[in-house]
Each structure stands twice: as C-alpha cells, then as structure tokens.
Design goal:
429 residues, alpha/beta, 7-stranded mixed β-sheet, 12 helices, 31 strands
C-alpha cells in the first residue's frame, strides 16, 4: 500500500452539525467520549497500511491541528505522516475550497509530487471500520479508473445519498444525486447482484455511494485539470467521468453511518451503549481506533447507579443515576443528578478543588453538572457549566429552537448546550 496517497476531506463549515462546529472543524468534533471524528478514517488508514495521509480543511482548524500533531507521530525511520492542509488563498486560487473536488484540485501541485499509483479519497464524518487494502485490491483487479465504495440502503434513507445503477460486472452505468419521488423510484435495482439475499434485496433496493473513492493517479489529475468548473466529486466529477472511464462499484458489507447531522451524531453515539453488543464497537484488537494519549487518571465513581453507559477516563462522578449515556473525558457530575439518553463531552481541563470552591463562593459555576440537576436527551459540549437544580429535558418537545444567547440550541428535539456555555442554577429547558 506504499503506492497509495490518502486524502481525507474535512468538509465545509459543518452547518448541519452546528453548534458543535461553532468553535472547531467538523473532523475535530468529539466522538464516543474520548475520540474525534477524524480518528475514524485515520485509524482505518493506519490499520490498512496506508501511512501517507493528508487532511484537507478550511474552518476552525486549530483544535484539529493540535489533536493530529499530538496524536499521530510516526517513527523517524518511517515515511508515514498525517498532515493537515488548510485552505489558503493564492494568486492561482484566490477563493476558498468550493467543494470536495476543488479542495483536492487546489493542492494538486503538492499531491503530484508523490510517486504513487492511486489516490484514496475519504470523508471525515462517517463512523465505520474498513480495510482499505481490500478496496484498493478490488480496484486494481477490476482494472478500474475509479472505484466507489457503495452500500445497499432502504427507501427512507435513499433521498439523502447519491444513488447509482450498475451492470452485471459491477460497472456503474447511471447516477442520481439525492433523488426524490419518481426519480427515486427509477433508481431502484435488484441489489441481489451485490450478493444480498432476495429478502434483503427487497428491503434495500438502492445502491448508495459512501463518499469513498479510489482513483488512478493520472485519471484524477486529468479530471481535475480538464474540468476546472466541476467542484464536487459526487455531483459532478464522477458522474461526468462514467462515460469515458471505467467506474466500478465496491460493496461494503459492514456497519457504516453518516454522522453529519446533529440527530445522526446523537443516535450513533448513544447506539455505542447498546447491549449485548452495538453495531459498531471500539473493542477490536486487530483494528483499533487510535486517538491522542491524554494520560488521564482512572474515573472515580461514588455510590452511583450507572446502566448501559460509557464512562471515559478522568471523570469524577458523585452519587447519581446515569443511564444510556456517554460521558466524555474529565466529566464531573455532582450529587443527586439524573443523566438519561445524553452525551456529555466532558472538559478540556480540570479545575482544582480550591478553584471550584472559590467559584462557588463568588457565585460562579464550576465546570460540570451541578447538584440535583436532570439532563435527558441532550448533548452537552465541552467545558459547559451547568448550575444546581437545572432541568434540561425539553418537556414541551420543541423540535427546533435557536437560543444561542442563552447557551443552547434545539435540533430535531435534541437540546445542544454550547461549548463553554453557562446555564444558571434553577434553569428549565
């Protein structure tokens, strides 16, 4: 796999994940208590023996830079690296990245210097575990110019993806980007051609792109140079290339979830607590998910009732009740709290006992969840300060609300407390 260069697309402003992307790039959004979204594709690359990795981003990249520089240092005897390439304005390219293809095009001068055979293009906001070496091997064996990783999906999800049709040899012959109505029905195919059982093929009659591509080096470079007006891979570059190039489909059979929206992000995180075993598990010795080492102490739990939850390292939990929740690093929960169906991202730093006592004496709120508070179906971003007797339950079942000046938003019925927000004592949300 030394002849392959990996390019991870960090995405745009991350508006669908706002406010989690208010102060950070989308790939830097915390995941599963201790990881970040970017750890998924980077770990998949490393586990697939792909050690030459670029990450393209253009919004709020400071925390992403810090995370990658501290988490992925290859040996000096290796040519492996993980490097962030942020958007920059030059005389040749005065604009920011205009799309996925444009992002790669603007750094093509750098990528062309590599003596490689293929580029693998990856997204930074998906949750899955994949051996890319098998994907690349399929690309080579089929003598494809471009190979797309695809999954079969049902009608409910189909309108959110780019769909395609393939012939008996797996070659892609038709594309449709997020079709609806009659256009959607026309994209239905017999997915048993991908190896699904007849019953499963009826449930999932559509073939969707995962946004993961392998290109022959010369093909990608030619397509980007000859089509300067085409800025997106899924919508423009690849559909247009299907007529003149061999574009193949590669069936991925494992768990895969696009977590680019607040609701999908919330559901995917809480699904990690499922019993007896979640669809995606971080417990895999052969293909671990890596992240930066923080050297935190073990979590301390005092006389609490905790069920179906994930507790990250460095937490301090006083007597409380926690169910079906994910607690991030350095989370602090005071006495008699109830945490249900929620994701707490924790904190970036500790406050000492003296600092906490001083804040309380001054009428300020320390980092963490104050005593006697109840949090249900919520995402609490890092460093949030929740006062005592706070109720975050969305009891009126509000689906959408913009209360950023008060420290929170509601998306798809999920209350999202902003990073560094202060929620005063006795507040009811």
């Amino acid at each position: 796999m030394k002849n392959v260069l990996s390019i991870i697309l960090g995405g745009g402003a991350g508006t669908r994940l706002y406010p989690l992307t208010k102060l950070r790039a989308k790939p830097a959004v915390p995941l599963a208590g201790k990881y970040r979204l970017i750890d998924i594709p980077i770990s998949n690359c490393i586990n697939s023996a792909l050690n030459q990795i670029y990450v393209l981003t253009q919004f709020n990249s400071a925390s992403l830079n810090r995370h990658i520089s501290k988490g992925y240092n290859f040996s000096g005897f290796s040519d492996g690296f993980v490097e962030v390439l942020a958007a920059q304005q030059t005389k040749e390219n005065p604009d920011w990245f205009q799309g996925t293809a444009d992002a790669v095009r603007q750094y093509l001068w750098l990528f062309e210097e590599w003596d490689i055979d293929e580029y693998i293009i990856l997204s930074g906001d998906h949750l899955y575990r994949m051996d890319y070496s098998k994907f690349i091997q399929h690309h080579r064996e089929s003598n494809a110019d471009i190979t797309l990783s695809v999954i079969p999906i049902d009608e409910k999800k189909a309108t959110a993806f780019g769909l395609m049709k393939i012939d008996d040899n797996g070659r892609i012959i038709d594309f449709s980007e997020k079709p609806e109505g009659e256009a959607l029905k026309q994209m239905a195919v017999d997915t048993s051609i991908l190896g699904l059982s007849p019953d499963k093929a009826k449930e999932q009659p559509y073939i969707a792109s995962m946004g993961i591509y392998v290109f022959k080096k010369e093909v990608l470079e030619k397509l980007l140079k000859e089509n300067p007006g085409q800025t997106d891979f899924g919508k423009e570059i690849i559909p247009a290339a299907a007529n003149d190039y061999r574009v193949q489909a590669y069936l991925y059979k494992g768990y895969w979830e696009d977590i680019g929206t607040i609701e999908a992000f919330y559901d995917a995180n809480l699904a990690l607590t499922d019993q007896p075993s979640p669809e995606f598990s971080f417990y895999d010795e052969k293909a671990p998910i890596y992240t930066r080492a923080r050297y935190l102490p073990p979590s301390k739990v005092l006389d609490s009732n905790i069920t179906e939850s994930i507790i990250s390292e460095g937490c301090m939990i006083k007597p409380c009740r926690i169910s079906k929740s994910v607690l991030g690093v350095r989370s602090r929960i005071e006495n008699n709290c109830i945490i249900e169906d929620s994701m707490l991202m924790g904190a970036d730093y500790y406050e000492s006992s003296d600092v906490r006592k001083k804040k309380v004496a001054q009428g300020d709120i320390p980092i963490g969840i104050g005593a006697n508070s109840t949090i249900r179906r919520a995402i609490i971003d890092k460093n949030a300060r929740i006062g005592e007797n706070v109720m975050i339950t969305n009891k009126d079942n509000v689906q959408e609300a913009n209360r950023e000046d008060e420290g929170f938003l509601i998306r798809s019925g999920i209350v999202v407390v902003l990073k560094n927000a202060v929620i005063r004592a006795n507040t009811v949300i």
